[in-house]
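[step 3/7] inverse_fold.run input=structure_tokens len=232
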């Protein structure tokens, strides 16, 4: 016994690594977040939704992709609050998610309450408010990300794209692709590809980076949501 310090622990030999060998050490830790699909090389594509800083995402695409993201965010422990004018298309997902726990909640447009996000209880707010979503009462903040779903390019899209940290674009018309290309500074090849994207394929981009991702539903997701589709 040592006065005030308790028992002496077991004695072990120290593990020593020469300084010249430190560069050979590596930890198999990848990006932290929601696996949203695979990239062109078949590698997992991860979207880091739960962040200590505000994170705005705009998805110009279909309801199916937004709902898959909601399910996968909930599976990571995030609470998902859906602000929508079509609660009937979200009701089945809200009931099925969480194994009986209320981790996905539905709110009418403009009536979503403060969510009280924290590091131990992160929140993803999904705004499914049509072509002209009003300015949200609940905005992005620490541990609270906001994803705004637009079915097509709308007059409000330029403002949303400019303030977003990340933009997802699914199949759009050639005219829409040209406008999005200008707003997001996309190369010509990416702009030409947008009108030809298959269901479940999304171009995730910022003004500097871009990546095509294929999202495929798991057996449980497909059973609940059906097959991937761009048009609702």
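[step 3/7] decode complete -> sequence:
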């Amino acid at each position: 016994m040592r006065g005030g310090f308790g028992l002496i622990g077991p004695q072990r030999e120290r593990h020593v690594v020469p300084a010249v060998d430190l560069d050979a050490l590596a930890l198999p830790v990848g990006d932290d977040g929601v696996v949203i699909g695979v990239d062109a090389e078949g590698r997992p594509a991860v979207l880091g939704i739960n962040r200590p800083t505000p994170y705005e995402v705009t998805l110009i695409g279909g309801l199916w992709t937004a709902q898959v993201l909601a399910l996968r965010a909930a599976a990571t422990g995030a609470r998902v609050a859906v602000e929508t004018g079509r609660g009937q298309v979200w009701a089945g997902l809200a009931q099925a998610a969480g194994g009986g726990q209320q981790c996905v909640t539905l709110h009418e447009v403009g009536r979503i309450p403060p969510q009280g996000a924290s590091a131990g209880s992160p929140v993803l707010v999904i705004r499914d408010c049509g072509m002209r979503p009003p300015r949200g009462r609940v905005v992005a903040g620490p541990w609270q990300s906001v994803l705004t779903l637009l079915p097509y390019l709308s007059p409000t899209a330029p403002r949303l794209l400019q303030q977003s940290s990340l933009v997802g674009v699914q199949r759009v018309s050639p005219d829409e692709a040209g406008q999005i290309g200008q707003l997001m500074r996309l190369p010509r090849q990416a702009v030409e590809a947008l009108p030809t994207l298959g269901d479940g394929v999304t171009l995730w981009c910022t003004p500097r980076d871009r990546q095509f991702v294929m999202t495929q539903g798991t057996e449980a997701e497909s059973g609940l949501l059906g097959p991937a589709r761009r048009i609702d």
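[step 4/7] annotate
Residues 63-75 form the longest helix (13 residues).
Strands lie at 34-38, 44-47, 55-60, 79-84, 104-107, 123-128, 144-150, 166-169, 201-205, 210-214.
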